Amino acid sequence: MQVEVSGSAVISLLVDNESGALARIVELFSGRGYNIQSLTVAPVDEHGSTSRVNIVTTGTQSSIRQVKTQLERLVPVSRVVNLTAEGPYVAREMALVKVVSSGEPRTEALRIAQAFRARAVDTTASSFVFELTGSTDKLDSFIELMRPLGLVEVSRTGVASICRGPQTIQNF
Amino acid sequence: MTRTTGSTTLTAQTTATQPGAEVLLRALVEQGVEVIFGYPGGAVLPIYDALFKQNHIRHVLVRHEQAAVHAAEAYARSTGKVGVVLVTSGPGATNAVTGLLDAMMDSIPLVCLSGQVPTPLIGNDAFQEADTTGITRPVTKYNYLVRKPEDLAPAVHEAFAIARSGRPGPVLIDLPKNITVGDALYVDAKSVTPRTTRMTSEPDRAAIARAVAAMKAGKRPLFYTGGGVINSGPQASKALRKLVDLTGFPVTSTLMGLGAFPGTDRRFLGMLGMHGTYEANLATHDCDVLIALGSRFDDRVTGRLDAFSPNSFKIHVDIDPSQINKIVHVNEGIVGDVGQIIDLMIEEWEKQPAYAHKSDLDAWWAQIEGWRALDCLRFGQDQAPDAVIKPQQAIQRIYELARQTGRDTYVSTEVGQHQMWAAQFFRFDAPNRWLTSGGLGTMGYGLPAAVGAQIAHPDALVMDVAGEASTLMNIQELGTIAQYRLPVKIFIINNHYMGMVRQWQELLHGSRYSESYSDALPDFVKLAESFHATGLRVTRLDQLDATIRQALEHNGPVLVDICVEEGENCFPMIPSGAAHNQMILGPEQEASSATISKEGQMLV
Ligand SMILES: Cc1ncc(C[n+]2csc(CCOP(=O)(O)OP(=O)(O)O)c2C)c(N)n1
Ligand SMILES: [Mg+2]
Asked: NCBIfam families attached here (chain B) (predicted)?
């Protein structure tokens, strides 16, 4: 038996927008011991009857293949794509980052925010709330840089993802 | 977050509305339901009232909701139909949970209808309210909470489609009382498009061709068949026979697959796995091509994974894509209905160049016959007239004497040593005759399962091979047996121990028999009599056959208390964490030296 390395994967699903559908997905992960790093869900069609769920998970290639086939067994799930395995894709999330500081750290925070193209969506004499959109890595490094500069609170959306080019989740 | 189940077109509806309970029953009738196993209560009274007023569907009143589910499972497994259960809200639904999981693990198609408090009360901790869809989500293939009258009939139709399609399983429909009391429109089945067809695809012919080419190249091939062949229907068992006839390859089966291939056929090696036969396990270990048909590489089958069939090319056919490469990496995975795939394999086998390894196959068979000569199930029964009966002797004689009756026979079991001995000694000629709890190993399954089988097959011989501990877990079903005059034959293999627990304690825990003695047992004969059945007891060898015969000849329910040797162990045994070629054999065979590792102790 060869040892498989763990990696992370972005899985996108189309799901009937019915009560309990999200619970089924989440319970599948917890019940079978798979890991959810982040999860986003919102209706995406014109009638609001289909939701898209994006899940970032970690595991070996074979465990991620298992996750996918297990998800496909769920009745309300109509489509499952492992974007990481299927080719180039875009994955973005948004963070709201609150920094409370004054003096030199406050100036430094603002300077770094500008470098990251983060917007200050709320400003008081002692605080900023920065809004930043980008890849998970970019958000992670921004938050790390803010940590010594008075970071007090973070709120992140989790990843929304889509494949690059003209193809869609429907025609994989 | 509401969505009408499936998609309905309004054209085929009748115009008049009816009470929801009547709509429900109409949908059940359209789905071909003849029998419901159930137990009433406040939240389902409207449904019971509707049942009272009709005569298409027969209701069988059990004595506990868990038993309703097991009875429906046996009904389903022995007929190929969907089993139907009806329980009330709260405790009725929670009592059904074990049965639902049992059906889930063994892929049994069921629809369970549960009552629920009226929708305006949901979430208020109302009397007998339970979050039934929440509780049963992980133990069902799918479940519904019907919140709107227009969802009722489509939910029922889709539930049946889900239960029987793909890998079958249990589906629950939670029915708030205002939905069954209030009016609803009937929608027929053909106006509902169930969401079962979304992920299906055509069988991969190229993969089948590659699989058959690998079979043709095999010098030591082996079929490893499972419950999927039974679920696929009787034609799949026929196709399997044909494939075995064509290839001449040996066959082993899982616990759930017994009967798919005739147990009396020379090419059948018996069950494989933890209590499988010597020849089946060694063949699994040594084969060079392993063809898994509707089986799922359960840990009870594989033993130590890294030593499981280490040198074989593995082919896996399963209707559920998530089973392929789940536990064992296979070389060729084929998704589809196993009966259909076997047919395609037969076609392909006849098309490809003739099998060129006949002499290797003969040598393989010679090796298998050598293993078989060990006679791994042989046991030493003292032949003195007053000798204590060995449990194996009891089970073998039940099998042989039942066979002599020539009657169509259905056998259920409880869980434990007696179950494994029954699996070893009973040889089934046909599928759907063997009713046992495999995946979940639910003590208390056997008695209600016998009820379900006898309801489905009133003229057949239905036997329950039971343990004294297990059978007490649903012993109240003697009441159901009495009420419906079901001529079930219950054979309690009474070893005064939770024998399987005692065996593990002997082998793994220094013979410290912690809490595994069956103390304070009832007098089973009097117990049977108090439930209006015939009770018999046998304690010595010379009365065994006569007692079994007496039971089989009696035309009412009989419970036989067969007092057997207490300390007997079930062999062969692959201890947890050991490989197939490290079996422990019985005292009659040469004791082999499988050492049980610490790691093995942690496995269950
Ligand atoms: C509901 C349930 N509880 C506990 C167990 C664990 N268990 C497996 S076999 C067994 C003993 C069964 O004893 P008995 O019915 O007398 O059968 P025997 O092994 O003696 O033939 C137990 C407790 C189980 N399988 N199911
Ligand atoms: Mg016992």
From this structure: acolac_lg (TIGR00118)
Q: Please determine, for residue B11, whether its predicted confidence score (pLDDT) is greater than 90.
A: no
Domain with CATH 3.40.50.970 in chain B: 6-197, 391-563
Active site residue B268: no
- The fold of B205-372 is Rossmann fold (3.40.50)
Interface test with B, best of A75, A79, A169 (most B CBs within 10 A): A75
User: What is the C-alpha separation between B335 and B203, in angstroms, rounded?
Assistant: 6
Q: Which fold has domain A6-87?
A: Alpha-Beta Plaits (3.30.70)
Interface probe for B, chosen from A51, A73, A74 (most Cβ of B below 10 Å), is: A73
pLDDT digits (tens, 9 = 90+) for B398-446: 999 999 999 999 999 999 999 999 999 999 999 999 999 999 999 999 9
The CATH classification number of B391-563 equals 3.40.50.970
Comma-separated ranges of CATH 3.40.50.1220 domains in chain B? 205-372
The pLDDT value recorded for residue B2 is 36
What is the rounded CA–CA span in Å between residue B454 and residue B484?
Answer: 10
Encode B203-233: b = buried (16+ Cβ within 10 Å), e = exposed. Answer: bbeebbbbbbebbbebebbbbbbbbbbbbbb
Average pLDDT over residues B378-401: 98
Residue B196 has pLDDT above 60, yes or no: yes
What ipTM score was computed for the predicted complex, to two decimals? 0.94
Identify whether B572 is preceded by a cis peptide bond (ω within 30 of 0).
yes
Mean pLDDT over B72-100 rounds to 98
Nearest to residue B76, comparing CAs of B113, B111, B26, B39? B111
Annotated domain spans of chain A: 6-87, 90-160
Q: Which ligand is nearest to the CA of B569?
A: 1
Q: Which residues contact B129 (CB under 8 A, 6 or more apart)?
A: B89, B90, B116, B117, B121, B122
pTM of the model: 0.95
Q: Which residues contact B430 (CB under 8 A, 6 or more apart)?
A: B234, B237, B259, B262
Residue B247 to residue B264: CA distance in whole angstroms: 18
Distance CA B113, CA B146 (A): 11
Q: Which of B377, B461, B458, B455 is nearest to B411 (CA)?
A: B461
Q: Which CATH class is domain A90-160?
A: alpha beta
pLDDT, residue A80, reads 96
CA B176 centroid distance within chain: 31
The residue type of B291 is I
Mean pLDDT of A13-34: 96
Asked if B2's CB is within 8 angstroms of A70's CB, the reply is: no
CA distance A70 to A55: 14
Q: Which residue of A has its CA nearest to B1?
A: A18
Say if residues B371 and B283 touch (Cβ distance below 8 Å): yes
* Domain covering B6-197: architecture: 3-Layer(aba) Sandwich (3.40)
Q: With a cut of 80, say whether residue B199 has pLDDT above it.
A: no
- Ligand 1 pocket test, pick from B415, B442, B561 with the greatest ligand atom count within 8 Å of Cβ, gives B415
Q: What are the tens digits of pLDDT across the range A110-130?
A: 999 999 999 999 999 999 999
- Name residues whose C-beta falls within 8 Å of residue B363's C-beta, 6 or more positions apart in sequence: B219
Res B272: pLDDT: 98
Task: Find out whether the beta carbon of B392 lies less than 6 Å from any atom of ligand 1.
Answer: no
